[in-house]
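task queued by scheduler; priority normal; single chain, no ligands, no partner chains; default sampling; output format set to structure tokens
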Amino acid sequence: MKFHELELPGVFVIDLESSADERGFFARTFCTDAFHDHGLNPAVRQCSLSFSTRRGTLRGLHWQAPPSAEDKLVRCVRGAAWDVVVDPRPDSPTFRRWTSVELTAGNRRSVYVPAGFAHGFLTLAEETELLYQMTEAHAPDLARGARWDDPAFGIAWPFPPIVISDRDASYPLIGRELTTRP
């Protein structure tokens, strides 16, 4: 695995290093030792799958508050998504900054999202699935969110969403108190 730190400290894109032959290839997708070597939390407490039927589905921006703040490893296993990580922490030197990476079933990349950072994505293909490995179990009472289109973030989404949940569409702007609604 090759680890590439992005503009936000602690956010990594992880590319596979594969061994190929006439059968196809073999590659590690996760290794506790490699995560430790890069200062990342390798604990996996929960895995989840997100499936979106339509291109243009937006999910996010979500995170969990302490004591259940979670690190996430996100990989696209079918289709394609434009994945975004935002720093919503007012006391952080990177507050309001964001970074993005295209995750596809074909490029087999994953993104590591540290605890406290907001995460979201926009599907670029029909029938897109993202696999999440998380360091904490889902805690609905500690779920947090911010608006995907908040001007304070200035995220340059590739195109406007076509499908978005009422919850995600109604999160507050960062200039207002961040929501505690699940």
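post-processing summary
- Residues 2-169 form a domain with the Jelly Rolls fold (CATH 2.60.120.10).
- The first strand starts at residue 2 and ends at 5.
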